[in-house]
C-alpha cells in the first residue's frame, strides 16, 4: 500500500529481524538505517515515486514547503498505523490458517492466531517503549548516498575571518577528464 508523504509516495513494510531498526530506501541512491528501537522488528520505508507536481509546487512557492512539512508528521503516522494494523491482521489470520492446516482443529487454529497476535503486539509494544527519536540524527548510510555527508559544502573560515564555502566533493584531477 502506497502512502503519500510530502512530494513522495512511500511503501512501508514490517519484518522480523534480530536487531531492530528503521530503514529508508532511496532508490537508486541507497539507504539510510536508524537504530530507533530494540525490538526484533525492521520497519522499512521505500520511496517508490516522487510526484513531480508536488515537488514543483514546493520549489515554486516557499509557503508550500511549510504546508508540506506540517503535514508530513500526520502522513507518516497514518502510514505506519495502517502498516501495523495490516501486519496484525495478516499475521493473525496467517497463523490461524496454518494452525488449522497443521493441527486440523479449530481451537488449535484459534490458539495459533492468538499466539501470533500476542507476539506481534508484544514486539510492537517493546518497539514503542524503546523508541529513540534522537537516532534519526545518526543514520548509517549505504549505497551511493554513503558519500553524501562528506560531499556537502562545508563552511570554512578564511584568514580574513569571513566565512566562505569549500566543496567536499571527492574530485581529483584523475577523475575529471
How would you characterize the overall build of this protein?
By secondary structure, this protein is of the alpha+beta class. The protein has one domain (2-147). It has four helices and eight strands; from the N terminus they run E-E-E-E-E-H-H-H-E-H-E-E. Helix 1 packs antiparallel against helix 2 (62-103) and helix 2 (62-103) runs antiparallel to helix 3. It is elongated.
How do you describe this structure in short?
This protein has 177 residues and is of the alpha+beta class. Helix content is 45%, strand content 25%. It has helices spanning 52-60, 62-103, 106-129, 148-151, and strands at residues 2-5, 8-16, 21-26, 30-34, 41-50, 140-142, 154-157, 163-166.
What does the main sheet amount to?
Answer: 6 strands, mixed
Q: What series of H and E elements makes up the topology? A: EEEEEHHHEHEE
Q: How confident overall, as mean pLDDT? A: 84
Give me the secondary-structure category.
Answer: alpha+beta
Kindly report how far apart the N and C termini lie. 45 Å
Percent in strands: 25-35%
Number of strands: 8
Which strand order do you get reading across the main beta sheet?
1-2-5-3-4-6
Shape, principal axes of CA atoms: elongated
Rounded to an integer in angstroms, the radius of gyration calculated over CA atoms is 22 Å
The number of helical runs is: 4
Which spans have pLDDT < 50 for at least 5 consecutive residues? 158-177
How many domains in all?
1
Which percent range fits the helix content? Answer: 40-55%
Amino acid at each position: 500500500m502506497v502512502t503519500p508523504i510530502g512530494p513522495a509516495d512511500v511503501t512501508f513494510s514490517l519484518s522480523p529481524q534480530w536487531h531492530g531498526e528503521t530503514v529508508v530506501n532511496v532508490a537508486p541512491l541507497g539507504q539510510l538505517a536508524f537504530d530507533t528501537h530494540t525490538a526484533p522488528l525492521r520497519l522499512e520505508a521505500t520511496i517508490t515515486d516522487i510526484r513531480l507536481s508536488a515537488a514543483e509546487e514546493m520549489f515554486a512557492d516557499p509557503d508550500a514547503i511549510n504546508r508540506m512539512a506540517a503535514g508530513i508528521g500526520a502522513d507518516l503516522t497514518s502510514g505506519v498505523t495502517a502498516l501495523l494494523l495490516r501486519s496484525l491482521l495478516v499475521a493473525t489470520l496467517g497463523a490461524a490458517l496454518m494452525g488449522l492446516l497443521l493441527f486440523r482443529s479449530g481451537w488449535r487454529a484459534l490458539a495459533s492466531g492468538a499466539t501470533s497476535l500476542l507476539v506481534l503486539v508484544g514486539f510492537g509494544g517493546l518497539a514503542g517503549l524503546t523508541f529513540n527519536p534522537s537516532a534519526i540524527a545518526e543514520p548509517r548510510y549505504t549505497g551511493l548516498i554513503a558519500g553524501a555527508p562528506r560531499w556537502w559544502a562545508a563552511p570554512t573560515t578564511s584568514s580574513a575571518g569571513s566565512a566562505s564555502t569549500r566543496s567536499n566533493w571527492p574530485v581529483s584531477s584523475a577523475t575529471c577528464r
